[in-house]
Amino acid sequence: MAAVRQGEDRPREPTFHEALSNIMGAYHHSQETMATVLAKSQETQRLQEEQYLGFREELKSINSTLCPIVGVLKELVNTRRDTVAQQGAPDTSLDEDLPTTSAGHRTTTPAPHPLQRENHPANGP
Question: How far apart are CA 107 and CA 100, in angstroms?
Fold first, then answer.
């Protein structure tokens, strides 16, 4: 930095040693900043890897819990299909929540919400 000597109108030029000192100070500061950024980056990466490994272990645990349940459910569905096939009748036991037509037949489309019906008072005349 330029310093003003007493009695001079303009700032004096820094000496070679002052300029070199300023440059070296800035260089060391930038090195410290880069080291700090690198350390934080490495810490962030380490934490992300730990988090990933933790999630992976949780998923393995969930998977090991769900696989036997899914296997039992598949077995039950297959047993039900076999039973229905032996009886020769279509399986409607799972259709109880499906709406029926005016003739009493089951339909695969869900019933409209009560507010969506044409004759609902909220829908106007």
Answer: 6
CB neighbours of 44 closer than 8 A, spacing ≥ 6? Answer: none
- Judge contact between 80 and 92, C-beta under 8 A: no
pLDDT at 68 over 60: yes
5 exposed, middle or buried (CB, 10 Å; 0-12, 13-18, 19+)? Answer: exposed
Give the span between the Cα atoms of 54 and 62, in whole angstroms: 12
Q: How far apart are CA 32 and CA 29, in angstroms?
A: 5
Structure tokens given for 39: 């350390």
- pTM of the model as a whole: 0.42
E-assigned strand segments in the chain: none
Residues in the chain: 125
